[in-house]
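A sample follows:
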Amino acid sequence: APADGRRSSKPGDSPPATLAPACRLTPPGPMIYQCAVTPILEDIVAEGERLLALAAGDGVAVRLLGGVAVRLQAPALPPAFDRSYKDLDLAAPKGGASAADKLLRAAGYEPHTAFNALNQKERMLFFDTAHDRQVDVFVGAFRMCHEIPLNERLQTQDRTVPLAELLLTKLQII
């Protein structure tokens, strides 16, 4: 035998009587397979439309803003302006945070519990973990570099905030 204690293998040698496996590929017992099933659509524009339909059916006054809202307002964009969207942005009226929260939870989104508890009167966050996306909900106004009041204007259009406010929200992001 070699000095390191290993057996040399020669033609005709039989393997050791017992071999202890170095690792186990599967745990003992039956295998359990789990997969995440989500009603949230992969296409973010279609998902925005799904949320608007759910909101209309439940009487929840939310409107899209942000890139997906621009896309809904201009569905035939030239290819040079086409881009992928990373999140959904919704506007809810003042006092509508609870209804928006229920809508998004029922639609399959996970709330950012701590953030929403602290900021629910102005803004809420929800997550779509299956598609690695976020939904921002602005309550009553859009606040970034400047405050754009939305409360009185949400009923002006069906699916998105009015074009003037949509443009203002896009122009102030630096």
Residues 4-26 have pLDDT under 50 and may be disordered. The longest strand covers residues 133-139.
